[in-house]
Design brief:
This is PH domain-containing protein. It comes from Nothobranchius korthausae. One of its GO terms (cellular component) is nucleus. The chain has two domains: 3-99; 105-134. Helix content is 48%, strand content 19%. It contains six helices and five strands; from the N terminus they run αβαααβααβββ.
């Protein structure tokens, strides 16, 4: 995993973690996040790696999983079977935008100009309270 991917996983972990210190995430939340990542990668969810981890370490079920063990298990591939790191990175970016930045939909659309009435292709980002458009996917 790249540093950027680890940071996104860390942010998602903080978002889903319990409100106590040290930060821990219960197994249901871990499963939810892994299912979201599998869906974004167009893979079928396989709960066996998570069940194996819980059976090897019963404290995970009782106390939850710490952020450092979660990142380590993600890095080594013990929680999720990934075919390529690029696919995981793209899926992680999609899940991060959806959950952390609350992006509902994004993509290209045609927009009619105000001054000159011509149609131009714009990159749109739809959030629950707003819709923004940009000249390109770089959000510029």
């Amino acid at each position: 995993l790249s540093e950027r991917d680890c940071f996104k996983l860390f942010c998602l972990f903080n978002l889903l973690s319990e409100d106590r210190y040290p930060l821990v995430m219960i197994t249901e939340e871990v499963e939810y996040l892994l299912k979201k990542l599998c869906t974004a990668m167009s893979q079928e969810w396989d709960e066996k790696p998570l069940e194996d981890l819980i059976s090897q370490d019963p404290t995970v079920l009782e106390e939850g999983m710490s952020v450092w063990s979660f990142l380590e298990h993600m890095r080594t591939g013990r929680l999720l079977r990934v075919t390529s790191t690029e696919a995981l990175s793209l899926a992680l970016n999609e899940v991060f935008l959806e959950m952390y930045h609350n992006v509902l939909k994004r993509g290209y659309m045609w927009k009619k100009g105000h001054v000159r009435r011509n149609w131009t292709e714009r990159w749109f980002v739809l959030k629950p309270s707003s819709m923004a458009y940009y000249a390109s996917e770089d959000l510029k």
